Amino acid sequence: MTDNTGKVYIIGGGPGDPELLTLKAKRIIESADVVIYADSLVHPSVVEFVKPGAEVHGSKELNLDQIMELTLGAVREGKTVARVQSGDPAIYGAVLEQMRILEREGVEYEIVPGVSSAFAAAAALKTELTVPERAQTIILTRAAGRVAMPPGEQLRDLAAHGCTLVIFLSITRMTRVARDLIAAGYSDDTPVAVVYRVTWPDELIIRGTLADIAAKVRVAKITLQALIIVGDAADPELRRQNQGGENGAATSHLYSSIYTHRYRKAASTRR
What we know:
Cobalt-precorrin-4 Transmethylase, domain 1, five-stranded mixed beta sheet, 2 domains, 7 helices, Methyltransferase, Cobalt-precorrin-4 Transmethylase, Domain 2
């Protein structure tokens, strides 16, 4: 490539709400000569920031070859390209194959992280995915579908950990997801939350358990753009429990007055 080539930015467009774009992402979108965005998943308001005269292309009807033809053609003209993905590019962003081509062609590129729908969903649920003393591990995964899962990564395998599960791309398999998790050891009253189009104007939250969540999803007719969260993190009662005590809620030590750490000594418990 010559020295006058442009640059590609692979940008996390966040879950939907344009105010959840990072400052860097917004700045790049505003200054880019060409914006290629995943218009089936990225809210259209995200590309309202483009400058006059910028090219804007939706990618939902394009295959990889067509996307990269647009990208490389612009770069060879010295243009800056913003490739806007939904959420964060690192999670089911299908960007690895794009990076391989950019590497092969000697094109400079940069990845700009974004807010994943996993964390936007936790915010919508007003919950903490790492529940003190109950679940300190989060698994981000999906159910097997047209694309097989690697060995050891079926839901039944992952369920053995008993931690918080954040399940992407699987809402059409909700019945099987619930069945597999129960078969693997989760109780049928395990809390579940389904968050549809989180931060979009038509966001919808459905709460239930592994026993009834599939029926609730069917009634709501949700078939896409929904995240499934399984485990104590999906339990709305967590916020209503009393702190401490024999029957109280588990509490993080981070701000506890009886816990010493590098910046603060524990308060005396003597009376």
